[in-house]
Amino acid sequence: xxxxRKFDRAFLKYFSKVIDRTNGVVLGYLVDLTTGGALLVxxxxxxxxxxxxLRLDLPENFTEKDHLDFEAKAVWTRPDPTSDYHRxxxxxxxxxxLDMLILEHxxxxxxxxxKKGNNQELSKF
Length: 125
Prior knowledge:
Blueprint: E1 10-20, E2 26-33, E3 37-42, E4 51-57, E5 67-79, E6 86-93, H1 97-110, E7 111-112
Antiparallel strand pairs: 1-2, 1-4, 1-7, 2-3, 3-6, 4-5, 5-6
């Protein structure tokens, strides 16, 4: 399969809160990110294949915006092996070009790129 990522998957040094815009519920925190997908860690699993209307809180004074609004599809979920939390892989959808630039900026400024071969969990989506 051809690799189409502009940026490698990055663990985030800043865990951004992710909120369901339809009901205001905090779904969890973003712990890794690419321009096409993300790993969310939260208190409960998200329903597979559902599309969520999300708000991602941005670091303070990071940009003129304090959050991003976008859609994401839950593509996998499983219990976290080291805690009572759940991990959910998200496919990012319908992001404006400006918001995509902000995500790319987050990856560069707050991301830690794991070494190749040490990233088994994150390579699954």
